[in-house]
Design brief:
There is one protein chain. The chain folds into two domains: about 90-155, no CATH class; about 155-355, CRAL-TRIO lipid binding domain (Phosphatidylinositol Transfer Protein Sec14p, 3-Layer(aba) Sandwich), CATH 3.40.525. Helix content is about 35%, strand content about 10%. It is built from 14 helices and nine strands. A five-stranded mixed β-sheet has the order 5-6-7-8-9. It has a two-stranded antiparallel sheet with strand order 1-2. Strands 3-4 form a two-stranded antiparallel sheet. Strand 3 (about 105-110) and strand 4 form a beta hairpin. The longest helix is centred in the middle third of the chain and has 19 residues, at about 215-230. Mean pLDDT is about 80; it is low at about 1-85.
């Protein structure tokens, strides 16, 4: 994982000043080499025999030191220092590490944190926090520390082993991983696509499923952590940058059978809380987000919303009135034929989510 070099790095010390006196070619003159120089300089001009030795010009009374050799401005030590410091300051990634190593919780997204200069998974995580905050270190640091606080309190990794209510959450969410051809799932991010599916049409009772806000948020966090296991940042060997980041997932929200005009207050509260929790603690993990089976009236409101969101966010959101058109959205992807691998109800030819997908534990 690459660190961000400073824009103001100081390469090496500037070369020492070199004398430019005409005729000396940077070679020091020695006082006293011509003892009669001053005398000849004061005499009347006279005709000089070309065969006789010529007097030299006056010289300084003190010898000039030889010019110091120019320093190598591209020495390895200087280049390395320019990556990590600017006038003695730590690089952005190093600053995040300094803040994180003082926190009692040493894990994010299942990855034990370490020095990002030597640990690519940590570099990826820190770079995501920087990317989410447009490279502003203080904002990234604040979000990182708050995420560590939240993870220390919530213990999301333990939620992967928690038993959730089957009556409330069975069939509500899945994680699927698709690879090229018939190859099994691989750890190379360039060769797989990870999806998280939220099937809100499977909710039997809005009040029962969303009524216990903490329980629903914990289930949703468990689904997110399950998706992160499939992405496998912990096994990464290639760093990311502000422009290159394959460690992301596609999210699908299917609202088939859900009436937006009859949403309960508890469902709205649960949705609002999940948006906040995921936005605060899982930055730069969303590749694209599809909202399926949205009523026409909601499609209008999504169109209106486009006027108020950033271009960066806008390109990730895709409201669709029919879920069967989803497969058509994946013509050019990392995985050839990805659309055909999706379940039939989403326009593909693949296995259904219950057969292929993984989900939080229910009983």
């Amino acid at each position: 994982m690459s660190t961000q070099p400073s824009d103001n790095a100081e390469p090496g010390a500037a070369p020492a000043a070199v004398s430019t006196d005409a005729g000396n070619e940077n070679t020091p003159t020695v006082a006293g080499s011509e003892p009669d120089a001053a005398k000849h300089a004061q005499e009347e001009p006279k005709v000089v025999n070309p065969t006789e030795p010529q007097p030299t010009a006056p010289v300084d009374s003190e010898p000039k030191p030889a010019a110091a050799p120019a320093q190598d401005t591209d020495s390895p030590a200087d280049v390395k220092d320019s990556v990590s410091t600017t006038a003695g300051e730590l690089s952005p990634l190093a600053q995040l590490w300094k803040a994180a190593e003082g926190h009692p919780h040493f894990e994010i997204w299942g990855v034990p944190l370490s020095d990002p200069e030597r640990h690519i998974p940590t570099q990826i995580i820190f770079q995501k926090f920087l990317n989410a905050n447009d490279g502003q270190v203080e904002k990234a640091k604040d979000q990182l520390l708050k995420t560590l606080d939240w993870r220390q309190k919530t213990q999301p990794q333990q939620l992967l082993r928690k038993m959730f209510s089957k009556a409330k959450f069975d069939g509500l969410g899945y994680v699927t991983t698709y690879t090229a051809g018939d190859a099994p799932a691989v750890d190379e991010p360039e060769q797989k696509e990870v999806f998280t599916w939220n099937l809100y049409g499977s909710v039997k009772s809005l009040d029962e499923t969303f009524g216990n806000l903490q329980e629903f948020v914990e289930w949703r966090v468990a689904l997110m952590e399950l998706g992160l296991m499939e992405i496998n940042i912990g096994g990464a060997i290639k760093p990311i940058t502000a422009d290159y980041d394959p460690y992301k997932m596609t999210q699908v929200h299917d609202y088939k059978g859900i009436s937006f005009l009859r949403q309960t207050d508890v469902a709205k509260a649960a949705s609002k809380e999940c948006i906040k929790v995921l936005g605060d603690n899982y930055p730069e993990l969303l590749k694209e987000k599809f909202f399926l089976n949205i009523p026409a009236i909601m499609g209008f409101f999504y169109g209106l919303m486009k006027m108020f969101v950033s271009k960066k966010t806008l390109t990730k959101f895709h409201p669709m009135s029919s879920g069967t058109n989803l497969a058509k959205e994946f013509v050019n992807t990392k995985v050839d034929g990805l659309g055909d691998k999706l379940p039939a109800e989403y326009g593909g030819k693949g296995a259904d989510l219950k057969t292929l997908g993984k989900a939080p534990i229910v009983q």
